[in-house]
Design goal:
The protein is mostly helical and 165 residues long. It is 68% helix and 0% strand.
């Protein structure tokens, strides 16, 4: 009879799932800085709560669920409503290369980006994504379908633009 390993070491969890948490946060926020803030908050909550997980999948699901919730909290923060655009004196990061699937994914609305990210990059099932995002599986299927449609349209427009040049 195999005994299931208990997952409770925060350092091990951070090392193992930190990249996945960051990728989901980035997919939700579209900003590296905001994704880093979300990632930091997720692991602070892990340290405060000190949950004991029954297995690897439980630990990953908990962390991704907290990451999704923290990203949602970030968008609801009152200070976000008072943000101003960068002034001319500040330099912005270089524009990403035009075209490609990554740009098509980043062009999606955040709710679609998260579903696409979790499905294709984290290789989670529709049911797992639904649990993490607190939505019904049918909602996730709809978001994936709509995201694929938007991405297909985006990529076709990019291809047509490239042919015109």
């Amino acid at each position: 009879m195999a005994v299931e390993r208990q997952w409770s070491d925060p350092e091990e969890l951070a090392r193992r799932y930190g990249p996945a948490v960051f990728r989901l946060a980035y997919a939700r926020t579209g900003s590296r800085t905001d994704a880093e803030d979300v990632m930091q908050e997720v692991f602070l909550r892990l340290l405060r709560a000190r949950p004991t997980f029954s297995g690897e999948e439980h630990a990953k699901a908990w962390l991704l669920r907290v990451a999704a919730n923290c990203a949602n909290d970030l968008f609801r923060a009152p200070w976000r409503k008072r943000e101003e655009p960068l002034t001319e004196g500040l330099s912005a990061p270089a524009e990403p290369e035009r075209g490609g699937v990554v740009e098509a994914v980043l062009a999606l609305p955040p709710k679609y980006r998260a579903a696409v990210h979790l499905y294709y990059y984290e290789e989670l099932s529709v049911e797992e994504i639904a649990e993490i995002l607190g939505k019904r599986p049918g909602t996730i299927k709809s978001r994936l379908y709509r995201a694929r449609t938007q991405m297909r349209r985006y990529l076709m427009e990019e291809e047509q633009d490239a042919q015109r040049l």
